[in-house]
């Protein structure tokens, strides 16, 4: 007992005090290493959250407003090659898939206004330029396609009074309107004058739909959108980063029966809330899609510059019929009958035209729709699936292929002689792939840095801290042991120096260290 007290006195002598100090420092370093190990990633996340948030004048905001990317839309048109036989002879329609017709896009957000509550309002501009060298044809190629305005009008008149249908037939006779039109690809997309729409515009009261006299599948899309979008910047709540708050001032869609389906709290497809996991469901809203589209994790992919990304794709039952996926019931406000499996009815967003969206080549729909026409190859998920690759840490879209097919659900109407022989059919019109292949190097470089550096920095920092801490600790303990022994041999009676007591001193000292 007494020997131990003496030893304590010796150990705290001036000579050894500095080594106790070193022990304290090394323990501090090891403790700091543990703190770094535990909290480093949270600090990185805080930095990421701060960096991605949209603020006036920041680099992120500049990239968001004027993305330095080259998105492209590839359009494939289904040319009907036996229109007359189909109408007069009841043969299967034979169609020829033409394309791609490639348009290079330039995106810019216009009239950006930041609000105090963590939102920003803007108008999206998209400019399309035809790229002949990437296309398999010219914009002037003539194609034969169903007359969408006419067949929409006749299909809608199915439940109207008979005299209306007869009147419609004579008007169409006078205007020489036929169930198929021959137009150029450019006209089909960007607009051609349609006699029926022109008539409707002159006749129908102003406040009632059809604001155009031209018809085109992408009519009025080249330029700045009239729709204002209000989006969360992430400043107040990073989990809402990039999600749409209001569309044209409206917090949700007016079309459906439940808020679940009317909800538009979704991304516009460019940025997503950061820190995505494999369990995350991300959503994309597009006006023409008429709903927000859910996408779930499919697999890990490696993007440009080896940056890891998650591939998100719509769940297989996204457009399933209400029997297979009862969640879709609220998308069918006037049904049943509702859209068949694999189709989404957008007629409420398309001036009541019977337009059904699907994936290209009727992917995920019953094969009977594809085989109802001749000339469409079986769907291939690699070519026809909708997907988007997102960098999960920052929520940036790195690669995307938004693929949608536009179909017209024609109803047979016997009273209108022009279409009396046009059977009930889901007629494919065209499909497109709006895609982004790579990000520019300035963006991928930064993403590479942000994804690879933190884990390496964490490992390196922790490693250095642990190694230095432990080395210092070992040295300090060793010096303490030696110092104590030396003091022993210097100050204690010579008889006490010897291997047995030496050993016991060591034990004592080891027992003492943690007490400090
Ligand atoms: C589309 O089909 C029609 C026949 O219906 C044909 O005259 C026309 O040349 C075809 N268009 C192209 C670009 O092949
Ligand atoms: C209609 O079908 C019959 C028999 O299938 C065929 O012989 C005839 O040539 C077809 N008519 C036209 C206009 O294609
Ligand atoms: C954008 O702002 C300018 C001036 O502030 C205005 O003249 C223009 O109409 C706005 N554009 C849209 C689409 O709101
Ligand atoms: C934020 O403020 C803008 C403009 O005052 C408003 O339009 C928007 O609805 C507000 N959003 C939220 C979530 O409060
Ligand atoms: C879109 O508009 C730009 C000018 O604003 C024009 O140069 C371009 O040709 C247009 N694209 C199409 C496909 O009409
Ligand atoms: C994902 O969800 C499953 C079950 O819901 C859960 O077991 C798993 O831990 C979750 N994974 C992550 C990364 O959140
Ligand atoms: C599409 O929706 C409209 C409006 O809800 C409805 O009248 C029409 O019957 C639907 N079409 C199909 C094919 O379900
Ligand atoms: C496809 O539709 C046909 C008839 O319309 C039906 O008999 C068949 O079971 C359907 N196939 C699938 C896979 O649902």
UniProtKB/TrEMBL annotation:
The name this protein goes by in its record: Scavenger receptor class B member 1
Family: Belongs to the CD36 family.
Chain segments annotated as coiled-coil in the UniProt record: none
Keywords of the record: Cell membrane, Disulfide bond, Glycoprotein, Membrane, Receptor, Transmembrane, Transmembrane helix
Subcellular location(s) per record: Cell membrane; Membrane, Caveola
Keyword Membrane: yes
Recorded GO CC terms: caveola; cytoplasm
Superkingdom of source: Eukaryota
Membrane-spanning ranges: 20-44, 456-481
GO MF annotation terms: scavenger receptor activity
Topology within the bilayer: Multi-pass membrane protein
SS bonds (residue pairs): 261-330, 290-349, 332-338
Main location: membrane
Pfam hit, one: CD36
Species of origin: Ceutorhynchus assimilis (cabbage seed weevil)
Record InterPro entries: CD36/SCARB1/SNMP1, CD36_fam
